[in-house]
Structure formats: C-alpha cells, structure tokens
Amino acid sequence: MIVKVCGVQDKETALAVAASGADFIGFVFAESSRRVEPEVVKEIIAFLPDTIKKVGVFVNESPDEINRIAAFAGLDIIQLHGDETPTECEQIDYPVIKAFPIREPHNLERLSLYDVAYSLVDHPGGKYRGGSGHAFDWQLLKQATPSHSQIILAGGLHPENVQEAIQTAQPFGVDVSSGVETDGRKDVSKIQAFVTQAKNKEMKI
Ligand SMILES: O=C(O)c1ccccc1N[C@@H]1O[C@H](COP(=O)(O)O)[C@@H](O)[C@H]1O
C-alpha cells in the first residue's frame, strides 16, 4: 500500500514523514492554507532521502511553469488537482497524479480519458480544490475497472478510518492531509499512526 502525506510546510515535519515510512510526501503550490513557496520546498527536499518521492500539488497552473518549479525544487511527481486536460497532463515532464472529484458513479468515467501514472479520487472539496477533510462514498470505487490507472484514495482519511477505507475501496494507495493535523498543523503522532494503520503494521505503544 502506497502512502502519501500531503501539505507539509517545514523541515521537521518532512523528516517525520520520511521516518514514518510514508512513500510519497506532498507540497502544495496551489491556493491553500498549506501553500509553500518553491524556495522553501527546495530547502526541505535537500534534507530528505531519495527513498521518499516528492510530490508537487498544483491547480490549473501552466505545464511550463509546473515543469520549471519541479526542476528547481527537485520534485519527482506532479499532482494536478484542478481542471487540467489530458493534453496538459501529457505536457508534464514528470509522472502525473491526476485528481478527480467524485460525487456520483459517472464521475469515474473521466479516469479512462487520462493516460497518467496515478488517478487520485477525492471529495469534491470545500474552500480550496482539495484538502477539505471530507470523505466521499468509498463504495463508489467498487465500479472502478482495471483499465483505470493505479488509484490513490483521498479525502477525509485519518488514522481511525484508513483501514476501513482500504478494505472498502481496495485502492493502490492512500493520501492524507487534514486527517494528520491538530488545530491546522501537522501532528507527528497522527502521521505515524496513519502510516502504521495504512500499511497494517502493529502499533508501537
Ligand atoms: O491540502 C491542500 O490544502 C490542498 C489544496 C489544494 C489542492 C489539493 C490539496 N490537497 C489534497 O487534497 C486531498 C485530500 O485532503 P484531505 O486529507 O481531505 O485534507 C489530498 O489528495 C491532498 O493531496
């Protein structure tokens, strides 16, 4: 099970995410309370091991600008969380995670239009285009087909519900942001608990 922890804004949290055993770490470059500047991300990434993949989250940014920021900061993967077209996804020089808001079963039909590395399925969102902390009906994913690219489940996940979410939706990976925060800040104990639960490891007390 691939685990991504998103919305990291400082070095201490980034090191804790890497130490937790997470596979992907996410930095939000879009409008959000979790937005970080490329210069800050570049500094953080310098301290991270190669084993954790660095994901940049963008919303409706131009492919040229995304490729420029990715090369500058040292990103490995690009997550597109807006209205990006299949053509725009192909203009990204990095593996792409394309996010799809899921409200109804027919929303899954769009996944097959995109030739991307991963499809991320998320709640339609609140104030920003992601990171709402709300879950959608995981049962809808039972209608996903093997022709869809590897599915990452997101939206309202936290340490207490991630195992049920995995059992219900059977995704390739899971992604969390709000669910590992306390009072709007990343909480290291919740990050550790989330990764442990998602990877179905025994909790160390
Ligand atoms: O986290 C954000 O602030 C954010 C802003 C804009 C686009 C995407 C964002 N994050 C992604 O949102 C989902 C779900 O987050 P949550 O766990 O429900 O808080 C996740 O894919 C984040 O990568």
Account of the 3D structure:
- The chain has 205 residues and is an alpha/beta fold.
- The chain has one domain (2-198): Aldolase class I (TIM Barrel, Alpha-Beta Barrel), CATH 3.20.20.
- It contains six helices and ten strands; from the N terminus they run E-H-E-H-E-H-E-H-E-E-E-H-E-E-E-H.
- Strands 1-2-3-4-5-6-7-8 form an eight-stranded parallel beta barrel.
- The longest helix is centred in the first third of the chain and has 11 residues, at 63-73.
- The model has no long low-confidence stretch (mean pLDDT 92).
- The structure holds the ligand O=C(O)c1ccccc1N[C@@H]1O[C@H](COP(=O)(O)O)[C@@H](O)[C@H]1O.
- Residues 6-7, 26, 28, 30, 32, 34, 57, 59, 81, 120, 122, 128-133, 154-157, 175-179 line the site of ligand LGQLAAA5.
- Belongs to the TrpF family.
- Residues 3-196 form the N-(5'phosphoribosyl) anthranilate isomerase (PRAI) domain.
